[in-house]
């Protein structure tokens, strides 16, 4: 049920645990905030495990927990353990801003958390407050060090690059990979509702490569990308860590897409940039059987298009704010 009409087998499921977040990042959430879905309209932990089990039985072997900020969910440690126990699941990860992660990280690791992405768009504390509209920069840096000590290798650091905001820090982020097992992942700025996207703010993959070359004349060596990988992976020769570029806007990777998304309200989204959604929460509420759910999921996957629209078309298409999708 997870193979679409273009032969793409979907083995990667992203599950948003909450729409709430403790930051207000300019590319993720409108400055005025968002209207949160009432709690009784969100997936419960039992419903998350129930639905995830169906996906794993159908071939999903990787789950990533997202948000909002997933660490704000009170039962995230227990929920991670329940998901980790699903037969056939190979790995479980989380994408987090790191603010509230530190005190939970060891317990999450003990409950099966094997992959960790921390979002950090600047290495400057003053700029962090400007970009996130909150404090907490030092806490994120401390969490990164804790994660390395706990053995996360690579520890992935997600950086959304915006022209005139943080693009001057690209070489500084690359420098993080010199002695540490960090994979810095530079992400092209993408349009979502409320983030005031424009192509003038977007720094392209080629421009990022040029910025790296100016600081590191030894250049970047190309690494082999795993199947289904969304990033183009490199390493500065001799550095311990690596550098990746996620080129959703200028060099789309739709042909190899293997991911699906379940949002906190239970809607299944088969493409990050697609407006079409189907509610698994409503189906569960109406008493759908597992076979009913499989049919709903299969039909949604079959409707997945060969590729998303161009970046200017995407910018004109109504979609949710990133904080409500889960990335």
From TrEMBL:
The keyword Nuclease does not apply. It comes from the Eukaryota. Pathway: Cofactor biosynthesis; molybdopterin biosynthesis. InterPro entries: Aldolase_TIM, Elp3/MiaA/NifB-like_rSAM, MoaA, MoaA-like, MoaA_NifB_PqqE_Fe-S-bd_CS, MoaA_twitch, MoCo_biosynth_MoaA/MoaC, rSAM. It catalyses: GTP + AH2 + S-adenosyl-L-methionine = (8S)-3',8-cyclo-7,8-dihydroguanosine 5'-triphosphate + 5'-deoxyadenosine + L-methionine + A + H(+). PANTHER family: MOLYBDENUM COFACTOR BIOSYNTHESIS PROTEIN 1 (PTHR22960:SF0), MOLYBDOPTERIN COFACTOR SYNTHESIS PROTEIN A (PTHR22960). This is GTP 3',8-cyclase. It comes from [Myrmecia] bisecta. The lineage of its organism: Eukaryota, Viridiplantae, Chlorophyta, core chlorophytes, Trebouxiophyceae.
């Amino acid at each position: 049920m997870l193979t679409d009409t273009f032969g793409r087998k979907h083995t990667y499921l992203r599950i948003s645990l909450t729409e709430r977040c403790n930051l207000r990042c300019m590319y993720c959430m409108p400055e005025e905030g968002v209207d949160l879905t009432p709690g009784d309209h969100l997936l419960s932990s039992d419903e998350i495990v129930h639905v995830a089990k169906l996906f794993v039985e159908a071939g999903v072997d990787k789950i990533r927990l997202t948000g909002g900020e997933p660490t704000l969910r009170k039962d995230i440690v227990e929920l991670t353990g329940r998901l980790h126990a699903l037969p056939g699941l190979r790995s479980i990860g989380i994408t987090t801003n790191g603010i509230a992660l530190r005190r939970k990280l060891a317990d999450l690791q003990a409950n099966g958390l094997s992959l960790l992405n921390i979002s950090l768009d600047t290495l400057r504390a003053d700029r962090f407050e400007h970009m996130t509209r909150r404090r907490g920069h030092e806490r994120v840096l401390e969490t990164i060090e804790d994660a390395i000590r706990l053995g996360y290798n690579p520890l992935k650091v997600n950086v959304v690059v915006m022209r005139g905001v943080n693009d001057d820090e690209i070489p500084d982020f690359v420098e993080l990979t010199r002695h540490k097992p960090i994979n810095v992942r530079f992400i092209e700025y993408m349009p979502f509702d409320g983030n005031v996207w424009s192509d003038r703010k977007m720094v392209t993959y080629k421009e990022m490569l040029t910025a790296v070359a100016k600081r590191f004349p030894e250049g970047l060596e190309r690494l082999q990308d795993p199947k289904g990988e969304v990033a183009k992976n490199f390493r500065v020769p001799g550095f311990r860590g690596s550098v990746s570029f996620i080129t959703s806007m200028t060099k789309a990777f739709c042909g190899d897409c293997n991911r699906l998304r379940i949002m906190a309200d239970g809607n299944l989204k088969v493409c990050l940039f697609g407006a079409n959604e189907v509610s698994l929460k409503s189906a569960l509420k109406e008493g759908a059987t597992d076979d009913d759910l499989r049919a709903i999921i299969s039909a949604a996957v079959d409707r997945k298009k060969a590729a998303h629209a161009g970046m200017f078309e995407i910018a004109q298409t109504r979609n949710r704010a990133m904080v409500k999708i889960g990335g």
